[in-house]
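Subject: Interface between my chains keeps coming out wrong

I've been trying for a while to get a sensible model of this assembly. When I model each chain on its own everything looks fine, but I need the whole thing in one frame so I can look at the contacts. Pasting all components below, labels as-is. Any help appreciated, I'm running out of ideas.
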Amino acid sequence: MTRLRRAGLAPDRGPLAVAAEGSGGLRLLALDPEARALGLKPGEPLGRVRARIGVPLQVHPADPEADRAALLRLCRWAEGYAPGVAPFGAAEAADGFYIDVAEASHLRGGEAKLVDDLAGRLARSNIPARIALADTPGGAFALACYGASDRVVVPPGGAAEPLRGLPVAALRLDPGTVAGLQRLGLRRVGEVDALARGPLARRFGEALLLRLDQAMGRRPEPLAPLTEEAAYRAARGFLDPIGRQSDIVVTARLLMAEIAPRLERDGVGACALRLVLHRVDGVMRVLDLGLSRPERCPERVAALVSLRLDRLGAGLDAGFGFETVALTVTVTGTLSVRQTELGAAPQGDGIDALADALTQRLGRPLLRLGARASHIPERAAHTLPWTLHGSDSASRKSRPALSPARERGLAPRPASCESDSPWTSAPTSWPDHLPPRPLVLFPRGEAALDVLSTVPEGPPRRFRWRARIHAIVHAEGPERIAAEWWHAPAEARDYYRVECEAGRRLWLYRDGPHAPGRPAAWFVHGVFA
Amino acid sequence: MGPDPANQTGRDPALGSPRERLAALRVRLAGPGGQAAPRPVLPLGLEAIDAHLPGGGLALGPPHEIAPMEPADMVAALGFALALCAARLARTQGAALIAAAPNQPLPHGHGLAGLGLDPARLLLLEAGGDAEVFRALEAALHARALPVLVGLLADGLPLKPGRRLQLAAEGGADGDAPPLLLILRPAEAGLPNGAATRWRIASAPAARDRFGTLDKPRWRARLERCRNGRGGDWLVEWDHAAHRLRLPEPLARDAAAAGRSRA
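Reply #2:
Try treating it as a single job with all components included. I did that and got this:
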């Protein structure tokens, strides 16, 4: 509902409902306050509702995926309060998330102030929310969903008391258990808690006691946070939001300087970084920075951030400014302390810095040419992301051998590489016994038309290609290149090097003849220098 | 009214032929210090061509424009550019960067051996357009990490980016030679720009070896425009083993023909 209104998909006023396919046609799923005031309830069939109320009702189809995405966005935003944020799962059967504010509430001036701040911000964004803060996730959930007020803060150690008055459904039980408890006249949590545990467990199973204990704080409940807590993370909040690029760069440098000693202690460097900027109005900007080799120098990271912001330009849209800036090292690689050799040229360093600068400035990785163990010309070479030779592939974590399955132009960032087959993933060296190959090879052969040859199945004398007649004065070949039957069934090709009258040298191949009915076809596969 | 040139020559009889006068003028324009430091150049190893180029070779730093004679000669132009690239790499360490606009022909790794170029010393950047190529080249010029930069453009080199590239090339004054900057552009007539030279390349029938098979690539290279130099037109041959351009030896064929006629 709120998502629809915020996205401008639904009008701001008038009763609004979200409907989804249920038993017996469309049924209402969610209602806004105006619709609820008309006496509508979730679960009613849409047709009957339309007939009953006299006012036009805005109905939108339910989109659970978009709802989920919106909730995740909200979770990401809430990470500004504390790193441990876990969205509700299937057991909760509600939209919401937990924030683990342990050890984090003092940053906002105490728990009550934190909840006030959260509620105020959500209200300013027109997101209706019920917030409860308690000792246990179960208790907080029960109070948020079934509590009397939409803002509850339970003092430490007092989790059990307010829960006793809540309905049993607040314990996150499956509907069958809830119905069974109600049949026995057990409507409140306190009533269930007062009973003997043995019979309860026998009748309703272990799940009921588990949920009860979790809510009461007698058993721990681990949360599954959205993002794993990063070992190398630093964040800085600002009383006055910052908006200038130079301020962000300086902050990134300070944060990296904060992380660097930890990285150094563990003998690693950052291969990929994530800079998260929390804007005052709740929008988050996430900048992912990749480095061509492990790095822990704050100045270099700051320079890369600066380049990245340069590229974003107005796309960053600082708005009223950023209030929290967080820097996380997402991928690390071993970086031992190096001694610079006297007299040795700092070979890779310059290229390294340039590769990173280009990646950040243009968003395109630097590539290099790689050979592949294949006879098929178009498979025999490909492009790979450029990395520093030698030290990189062996020492880097989470960066496996480069995948050969990638064609030109499709090379993603090296961090996401995966090798597809073990026997071709080893880097192949360039063969030195190959017959001449064209300087430019087309991804696939381009058909040569109107081929005229003097010898049957010999090289052509003239043909048409790219709207031009080519008269051949010299031909060498054939070089037969057999197909790789283990990849796909295909026929062998006969390649010829030809030179035409104008002096252009082309690489032609003949495909066929395969069968009496199918004559041979000629293709131009490359051009020599 | 300007001074009458005839009067000037009359007043200064020491200056004779136009060429000497030009040379004297260049000395005066170069300033009181004379030639401060000769610009580093890449000699092509061919006296016939180097004599046409100021400083005896392709100046390192300012952009050199290479265009095909007609669109179908694009690969020949790329070959010529990569040959120059190989010539420079053979004399220095480091790698070459090829920044290409979309749909420009990129070299095939196995084909580079024919030019004597090691594929491991090539870096490729697939840019999203000419503007990105210029930005990449500019960044690389500032970084001074690579000895050769090649830009493959879809449209051409306009005046402003050309000027920017030149400024970037002049920027680093810390002793290391600036990179060789080659700009490959399509055949269409180019706009005036800051390029130091403009070459037009067409393919030519390749040299044949003793057995009559295709051997060394040959190109017809026309030096269309050359700042402080003279244009020219040559048939050149690339020797991939020695990493140098050569003029085809007319004697070889004549000798063969003579031998045939004798036989």
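Reply #3:
Confirming on my end. Chain A has a mean pLDDT of 78.
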